[in-house]
Design goal:
The chain has 15 helices and five strands. It has 328 residues and is mainly alpha-helical. The chain folds into two domains: 210 residues, Rossmann fold (3-Layer(aba) Sandwich); 80 residues, Tyrosyl-Transfer RNA Synthetase (Orthogonal Bundle). The strands form two sheets. Strands 1-2-3 form a three-stranded parallel beta sheet. It has a two-stranded parallel ribbon with strand order 4-5. The structure holds tryptophan (TRP). Tryptophan binds next to strand 1, helix 8 and strand 4.
Length: 328
């Protein structure tokens, strides 16, 4: 709870590349409805970005667009706090202190750490190992109880819970125990049917223009068993990328019609893709219009203002932690 008795929400997005539809459905879309009844903190996890993307230009290019996207998707900076993780260096100090109750073994066993080691064996840096401690600090510093994230982040939130419990038990009962708010949305695959990833080149970017969207969707994987246009399809089990899009974008009635048409072979993949493309264009047009309406100076002012509010929330927690550990 914050001072006004509202439950606290924290979530962050790494600035590793352009945001795509998977980020939208997996995370961003779920942020703005929370503002109504929660005190929300949404940030660009720029420290975390450096664990795998050490190029300074990557960070310089990618941070502001994420903030603009937050605003364009309805996050209200007067209500919610939107900031860069690194403009709240209090989280770095909390990471150092919280790390004292974290065992090396549990960090090494973390599934996401092991994955990153496998993906990039030449850069197993310390930041990667302590990634979950930094993420726990992001959450615990605001005493958040709700963390809206995609399913891939659940192990990290579990670790944050464990660290909070442990600290509260060993020192003082300071931290709230956070919980994930899992998104209902199914995971959106990329256009090639595999996981949509910023670096896999298989996604629809939130800023793609209508022509690009239509081209990309046209290239999307459908049901490979449908060789002729009238072959019956199995949208639920076999459609690689287009049915999952419809599933997120259509009304129940539209979905039923698409299922029936596909199964009966009366709706061709070409037509189905055209419908999907128009849905995506219609979804993104108003977001893009808002996005391009912001001037960078305005967004930077928002960040300065919000960073102050983030500090007001973070400092008392850090102060208490320092005291509890004997650093008063
Ligand atoms: N690890 C998250 C991701 O890769 C980003 C993140 C960092 C985050 N700190 C967080 C998410 C705190 C929620 C809460 O997507």
């Amino acid at each position: 709870m914050n001072d006004e008795g509202l439950p606290v929400v924290v979530s962050g997005i790494r600035a590793t590349g352009k945001l795509h539809l998977g980020n939208y459905f997996g995370a961003i879309r779920n942020f703005f409805p929370l503002q109504e009844k929660h005190q929300c903190f949404f940030f660009v996890a720029d420290y975390h970005t450096l664990t795998t993307h050490p190029d300074p230009d990557v960070l310089r290019q990618n941070r502001l667009p994420i903030v603009k996207t937050f605003l364009a998707t309805g996050i209200d900076p007067n209500r919610s706090v939107v900031y860069y993780q690194s403009s709240l260096p209090e989280v770095a100090e909390l990471t150092l202190l919280l790390g004292m109750v974290v065992q090396l073994g549990e960090l090494e066993r973390c599934t996401t750490f092991k994955e990153k080691v496998r993906e990039n064996p030449d850069n197993v840096n310390h930041g990667l190992l302590t990634y979950p401690v930094l993420m726990a600090s992001d959450i615990l510093i605001h005493r958040a109880t709700i963390v809206p994230v995609g399913s891939d982040q659940i192990p990290h939130v579990e670790m944050a819970r464990a660290f909070a419990h442990r600290f509260n038990h060993l020192y003082e009962n300071i931290f709230a125990i956070p919980k994930t708010l899992e998104n209902e949305a199914v995971r959106l695959p990329g256009l090639d049917g595999s996981k949509m990833g910023k670096s896999h080149n298989n996604g629809i970017d939130l800023l793609d223009d209508a022509t690009t969207i239509r081209e990309k969707v046209k290239s999307g994987l459908t049901d490979t068993n449908r060789i002729h246009r009238n072959d019956p399809g199995d949208p639920l089990n076999n459609c690689g990328s287009i049915y999952p899009l419809h599933n997120l974008l259509c009304t129940d009635q539209e979905i039923i019609a698409i299922m029936q048409g596909c199964k009966a072979g009366t709706l061709s993949c070409v037509e189905c893709k055209q419908m999907a493309a128009e849905k995506v264009v219609a979804l993104l047009a108003p977001i893009q219009e808002k996005y391009y309406s912001y001037n960078d100076d305005y967004v930077r002012d928002v960040l300065v203002e919000c960073a102050k509010r983030a500090k007001v929330s973070a400092r008392p927690t850090l102060h208490q932690v320092r005291q509890a550990m004997g650093l008063d």
